[in-house]
Fold:
Amino acid sequence: MADRLHCVVLGAGLMGRLLAHALATAGHSVTVHEASGEDGKGAAARVAASMLAPLAESAITEWPVVDMGQYSLARWPVLIQQLPAPVFFQQQGTLMLWHRQDALQARMLVDKLRINCKQLPESCSPQNTDRERLQVLEPELSDKFNQGLFLPGEGQLDNRQLLAGLLQSLQQLQVGLHWHSPQQLEDVIAQSQQSNSWVFDCRGIGASYDWSQLRGVRGEVIRLFAPEVNIQRPVRLVHPRYPLYIAPKPEHVYVIGATEIESDDTSEASVRSTLELLSAAYSLHSGFAEARILEINTQLRPALKNNLPEIRRVSERCLQINGLYRHGFLIAPAMLDATLGLMQGDTSLVDRFSLSPTH
Structure:
């Protein structure tokens, strides 16, 4: 891409901001249209836990997502370093715990993760964790749990700091940012053909009118301020009904989630799911009893067939990037590099990650 191009990006969620930033950094002229405001409240990325845990996710997803997650783990520090503001990023592993009554389900999960680990030569092997080891990793959890599994090398970041850092960088790069500016893909393509521009559709669930296979999967997430809790790394609680996760953010903020509902309903969280999330958090650490509820959020994750992402070529210079589902932060750098490669005619990453079988 030696020539300076004009690029139009639809959507300023995680994928849209990353792509606009990469294109502008490369010296291209970039225009972004976002249906919501600059605060990102219309994006699923704003309320995500932003865990970077490919091996942990391998228990419930397909291999391409796991491969993309492992690839992205190495890319995130590079991308964050380019931003003008600090972004919380850690790679201290994931801790999986279970109560005694869930030990049978946990053993099945552990066996599956050990098998999956053999396909990830870059990852460290899962480590059995007893109470003594827990006292080193997470001492405040050792009184309630005496067994678990530690997945070294996995990480997380602060999603809101990242979105804000990307926005600040886009402004400094003089990207044309148009907020509250919903666009019809057909119209944008027609306009781009006159100026020989590239168009990238990153609207998530907002692109469902142009991509009929898209569907929304509802998630409910709670943010707590818990000064009496000191958990250092993401914790996943093995549960018979839902996979609860707790992701610690800076200044004693914790993101708690688990629910996945096949629905495009964006109304407030239900009493049932809220009670289940809070009860499960309390069963993990009694300090959550005195936590303050900062937010209870709902979000729609854009999903495609088999919950796998795709990059679809609509025309010679128009690509749609979508279907990141619950794996947005886990796989976004891989999706970014695959998109940039496809733009230059390089399909190696698209093929490796099975992102566009019909490209």
The longest strand covers residues 292-303. The radius of gyration is 20 Å. DSSP finds ten helices and 17 strands in the chain. The first helix runs from residue 14 to 25.
